[in-house]
Design brief:
Blueprint (H helix, E strand, L loop, with lengths): L3 E5 L8 E4 L4 E5 L4 H16 L5 H17 L8
Parallel strand pairs: 1-3
Antiparallel strand pairs: 2-3
Helix pairs in contact: 1-2
Length: 79
């Protein structure tokens, strides 16, 4: 089952993204730009799919994947 991605303002939570493992859902701040958006989506998806990874590991892996995808010209296309 695909992880549900909810776009909303997360200013009150002081976060760019949140993962809700029990609901297989992530929330992403709707104001994010292209590369930071990709990084945060990857970061939160790693939390969902690999909940035993530490925050440090999630940061390291999401940055590596994001930079690789960015160098291959993957981009978010706004609806």
């Amino acid at each position: 089952m695909a992880t549900k991605i909810v776009h909303k303002k997360l200013g009150r939570q002081k976060a760019e993204g949140l993962a809700f493992i029990e609901h297989n859902e992530i929330h992403i701040d709707e104001r994010m730009k292209k590369k930071p958006y990709m990084l945060v989506v990857l970061h939160e998806l790693l939390h969902i799919h690999f909940p035993d990874l530490s925050e440090k590991e999630v940061d390291r892996i999401s940055k590596k994947i994001c930079n690789s995808m960015w160098s291959l010209k993957f981009r978010r296309i706004d609806d």
